[in-house]
């Protein structure tokens, strides 16, 4: 009996220890998420929702491209007034520019950063825009019923998992624009990739923002930054509309000193356009615009430029080449989410681009979390791991020796890819994530660190 009791106690103790060990391992895995989720392909539901082609242009694609034509007179007047305020503000602050240049890191024009001007608040816009983002339902009704519905209620409840140091700001606020330019310059980035819709158009949750471009250009110039354009999938985007919109951008903004032009290997200085969701349009349509023999060819005209397509699936590389694009970028900050965003595929993509005279522009990001607007999408979260995830992405990018590195993003708060300053915040039932134990500017500092590292390594590549 004594031996039996001893053995029973031993078994219980062993089971308890084993259970605690398993719980410890599970907690570590959940916390870190893994820095290389290579098997998280686009077969998962999130991929289908975010990538229109993979849903074969279902209702979600229609929703993504259902852009609203809301160019109203009062909005134009308000933006015009804001532009005047911005110009006056800039004139008053131009005197310390020389001192500013001495204090800030030099811009790296091979570091391109995605930037969004779609945020609004009552002070500047008469209402909240984008901060009150709706909770997006899952396309499977059975799954959707398990998650909350409705919209966020700013300023304390916003459509983001982190909270900006500047609060629920308006992208029309000149002081906000200047603060953003200073942060991007501090990070030693050089080119702002500005999300752009044609005049009168916007994403399904926003308002037209083309009228803000002059203000962004002016402040970018003050900080010695350049601006290029991230052309979004506006309604009826095709070869003809793209020709007219590229012409519009170059005619209207091309003479501004902050307008970005890239020096090619042949010595030409050409504008650059990133084309989001380019794969939605078939290669034959793009070829009309982007090949010399195309019926709507922009080549060898005053509006010729470098056009960079979004690569998601591996097969897209052949479509991109056939379409006449000049290069490809990967955008997503979720390593393993798509073929293009998976770090371990970048070497083969770079080799393909090199052999076909294309630019390869990998996109790095600090992490990913969008459960504030897609509450069912927790499995695609990429933990920041106090900056380690970001540094891993930069390290992977430098290994392929790219001519340009793009950063996703400066301020895409909905998807938690921002490097803009964020602060701790708790309100009611909502507790926001933050950058602790680091300061709000930690991701700006990390970007600056890798910008300098890239510069030094690039000098070695060219030797």
Automatic annotation (TrEMBL):
UniProt cross-references to InterPro entries, sorted A to Z: Glyco_Hydrolase_99 (IPR026071)
An example Gene Ontology CC term for this record: Golgi membrane
Catalytic activity, EC: 3.2.1.130
Keywords assigned: Golgi apparatus, Hydrolase, Membrane, Signal-anchor, Transmembrane, Transmembrane helix
The protein's enzyme class: hydrolase
Reaction equation(s) it catalyzes: N-{alpha-Glc-(1->3)-alpha-Man-(1->2)-alpha-Man-(1->2)-alpha-Man-(1->3)-[alpha-Man-(1->2)-alpha-Man-(1->3)-[alpha-Man-(1->2)-alpha-Man-(1->6)]-alpha-Man-(1->6)]-beta-Man-(1->4)-beta-GlcNAc-(1->4)-beta-GlcNAc}-L-asparaginyl-[protein] + H2O = alpha-D-glucosyl-(1->3)-D-mannopyranose + N(4)-{alpha-D-Man-(1->2)-alpha-D-Man-(1->3)-[alpha-D-Man-(1->2)-alpha-D-Man-(1->3)-[alpha-D-Man-(1->2)-alpha-D-Man-(1->6)]-alpha-D-Man-(1->6)]-beta-D-Man-(1->4)-beta-D-GlaNAc-(1->4)-beta-D-GlcNAc}-L-asparaginyl-[protein] (N-glucan mannose isomer 8A1,2,3B1,2)
Pfam families cross-referenced by the UniProt entry: Glyco_hydro_99 (PF16317)
Single GO term (MF): glycoprotein endo-alpha-1,2-mannosidase activity
Gene3D superfamilies membership: Glycosidases (3.20.20.80)
Subcellular location: Golgi apparatus membrane
Topology term for the membrane: Single-pass type II membrane protein
Similarity comment: Belongs to the glycosyl hydrolase 99 family.
Listed name of the protein: Glycoprotein endo-alpha-1,2-mannosidase
Organism annotation: Rhodinocichla rosea
Lineage start: Eukaryota, Metazoa, Chordata, Craniata, Vertebrata
